[in-house]
Amino acid sequence: MSGSGLILGIESSCDETAAAVVERGERTVSSAVASQIATHARYGGVVPELASREHLRAIVPVVRAAMAEAKIGYGDLDAIAVTCGPGLAGALLVGLTYAKALAYAKNLPLIAINHLEGHIHAVLLNERESGAAGAGDAPSLALVVSGGHTHLYLARPATGSWRYSLMGRTLDDAAGEAFDKVAKLLGLPYPGGPWIDTMAKYGNPRAVPFSFAQIKTKVHLGGKAPRTKAAQTAPIAELDPHFLFSFSGIKTAVLRHVELHGLRAEAVERASRIEPGQRPPQSREEALALCPQPTLDLIASFQHAVVGDLLKKSFAAAERLGAERILVTGGVAANRELRARFTAEAARRSLHAAFPTLALSTDNAAMIAAAAWPRLLAGELAPADLTANPSLALG
Ligand code: KG4
Ligand code: ZN
């Protein structure tokens, strides 16, 4: 240990290989991300085998890039932090194995970080870096909303590192997954979230009245854990149904609307005109050329409904907990309507809503290194037999 406060973070849980150096959980010294979007785009989603192969290719150059950008050697580090779950098993293993070997070879402590905890620390890192009002260690309601997760936590600093209590979660699809699936069925490329975000502002959010029914877990699930790809958590029956989400229904409702209103042919034609990996349209003209008005109205209504559901349940949970701060994080936290409506609602209730920067919203390693700092201070090091846990729970 050099006493520099510098931690090298490594992240490889899904389709981004990332490494970053962060000082004392409050200053990003360097950050490198190799995205695999172009590889997976032609399949309309992440292909686990391809993800592992791409991580293997990228891990060494990405770690070297982060160290070079930070202009430091391994002797300058205090620790190495790595994501150990949840995520894709093969993908996690690449980062984990590399981090373990590096920590052993350089005689550095290794810290294991839950990917969801990392997303929460992305907001805390951003608040510290920007010196934002409301920064600090106040107990917060955290909404982690991404392609794999839609989880509500009470996050609070405890002796040493932070502690998390699960308040709510999705029973089926994650919100980002719903964005991606709806985009796909409308003939838009993967990942669909940024496309929907861009297109939504040209449509009427009240054109299609999508709604979310109140979830009654005890009736529907009989207290059993739901079928889900996301992290293992406390038995669902122990959670308040007011804080549970379900996004598979709205996806089906969009499909029904598309078929009923003959938007399908347009979508198929659009898909054949869009090259894999192309970025969202940058101008109003480009967006309008791609989608007729009924499709734009559908997109705007879908996004409005999803954001409304996330907002309603997050603020209800914050109120229940008496939390004064709401942290919104994960890929979907990049969404413009979500940011605007959460910010406005927080102001209305005299609460503070905080988001990561756009770069820190999607997967990155700065958030992993930032989350590791309080754990290093608390002496919470990874055991020698640390392994990847694809369904690792938080809280
Ligand atoms: O956090 P992330 O990079 O990876 C996971 O841990 O899943 O999140 C990726 C997800 C994708 O589903 C993507 O469509 C969604 O975040 N996303 C967005 C936006 N940007 C990314 N969803 C809505 N609006 C956006 N602007
Ligand atoms: Zn993530």
- By CATH, the architecture of the largest domain is named 2-Layer Sandwich
Mean pLDDT score, rounded? Answer: 89
The CATH topology annotation of the largest domain reads as: Nucleotidyltransferase, domain 5
* SSE sequence, one letter per element: EEEHHEHEHEEEHHHHHHHEHEHH
Note the overall shape: globular
Structural class: alpha/beta
Helix content: 40-55%
Largest sheet properties: 5 strands, mixed
Number of E-state strands = 10
Instruction: Return the domain count.
Output: 2
Strand content: 15-25%
Classified in CATH, the superfamily of the largest domain is: ATPase, nucleotide binding domain
Strand order of the largest sheet: 3-2-1-4-5
Count, helices = 14
Report the span from N to C terminus.
Answer: 30 Å
**Rounded radius of gyration (Å):** 21 Å
Low-pLDDT stretches: 225-231
Ligand names: 5'-O-[(R)-(carboxyoxy)(hydroxy)phosphoryl]adenosine, zinc ion
Per CATH, the class of the largest domain reads Alpha Beta
